Amino acid sequence: QAHFSTTFRAHLGVTPSEPCNDATFHRRAYLDVIGRLPTPQETRAFLADSSADKRAKLVDALLERPEYADHWANKWADLLRPNPYHVGIKATFTLDAYLRDAFRKNKPYDRFVREIVTAQGSTWQNGAVVLCRDRRAPGELTTMVSQLFLGIRLDCAKCHHHPFEVYGQDDFYSFAAYFARIGRKGVGISAPISGGEEVIFTAATGQVKHPGNGKVMSARPLFGKTEPDEDPRRELAVWMTSEHNAYFAKVAVNRVWADLMGRGLVEPIDDLRATNPPSNGALLDALADHFRKVGFDQKKLLRTIMTSHVYGLSSIPNKQNVGDLRNYSRHYRQRLRGEVLLDAMTDITGVPEVFAAAPPRRRPVE
Predict the structure, then answer these.
(1) Which pLDDT belongs to residue 5?
(2) Non-local CB neighbours of 124 within 8 Å, separated by 6+ positions
(3) Cβ contacts of residue 97 below 8 Å, gap of 6+?
(4) Residue 182 DSSP label
(5) pLDDT, tens digit, 9 for 90 and up, residues 263-305
(6) DSSP letter for each residue of 54-65
(7) Count of CB atoms within 10 A of residue 352's CB?
(8) 131 phi and psi, to 5 degrees?
(9) How far apart are CA 254 and CA 267, in angstroms?
């Protein structure tokens, strides 16, 4: 703590806020980990605890609660954005069940990503394949996968050279070629109903052509090399999750950091490039290295961040740091997610919300 404060004053001319009190930390941890407010009884018990490590023990306990899976699965449902009127209601529920199960089991992040990128099977049985049902063109999957899992925005490179990066059309369509052999069998998209089952598989053939010269593009990563595989998506997944691909871990920890701290070390959180440097590159590198060393265990990453001195700072600014919006000299306040806000309202008022086709007294985060 002393080193932290001295560094801020010496290098940034900023005095950090004081640590938050126990009641604030207790509420903050509940909202961040499980997306709900603590009950008065839970808060009283925490405040009465005089042990020195009670904050760390609180984080550990929250990470083991069932609400953790619901809260963080909701965040990933927002990122993958399944449209029930496009892919079908049943397919959307299948993806939802897949996400919640992944977080209940604390599935390692690299395995989670590999399963999504290489997914095969029925949209009614394997939720991971719903991304391939929703985004049916190789180009659509290219922009989604590169931005979400690598933090590299290739949208502009689809039509011309990326204005802020090194990527051009050759890079875009070579990357898209990894998705050229996605086969589909069954009922396709018939919006706004799209109720049928579809099976995703790796087809024997498939190609992507450069729109400018008509050249058939060979699958090629954005940098480095890949090991050949009979399944192009499997080859891509191995390259993406490799320890040599620094983007993979960095964009993952940057997203979690932003969820907890109110702002990413890189903003926007999924736009990692040389012309958009992090506010603290050494910290981003250290978190990414830590994430790899703990086997891409998100719970361990969350615990590391939440037991740090900077996470426990007060959100009340002082005269020196009131203008600080990128160095985390105080905790940045955030709006509550919609389902978290509704959940808080039902807890405070004691009036439960009613959801169509759901069991009675179901919480909004569920």
Answers:
(1) 58
(2) 90, 91, 94, 197
(3) 127
(4) E
(5) 999 999 999 998 999 999 999 999 999 999 999 999 999 999 9
(6) HHHHHHHHHHTS
(7) 13
(8) -60, -40
(9) 9
* pLDDT tens column, 92-126: 999 999 999 999 999 999 999 999 999 999 999 99
| Closest to 331 (Cα-Cα) out of 9, 24, 13 | 24
Mean pLDDT, the chain, as a whole number? 93
Task: Please name the residue ranges forming H helices in the chain.
Answer: 2-7, 22-34, 40-48, 54-63, 67-80, 84-87, 89-104, 109-117, 130-134, 138-150, 169-176, 232-240, 246-261, 281-293, 298-306, 338-349
- The residue assigned the tokens 């997914």 is 119
Residue 184 · residue 198 · CB < 8 Å: yes
Q: Are 110 and 145 in contact (CB under 8 A)?
A: no
Residue type, 190: S
What is the pTM for the complete model shown? 0.94
Distance CA(303)–CA(193), nearest Å, equals: 42
Q: What is the pLDDT of residues 52-70, one digit of tens each?
A: 999 999 999 999 999 999 9
Parallel, antiparallel, or unpaired for β 198-202 and 121-122?
antiparallel
- CB distance 188 to 157 below 8 Å: no
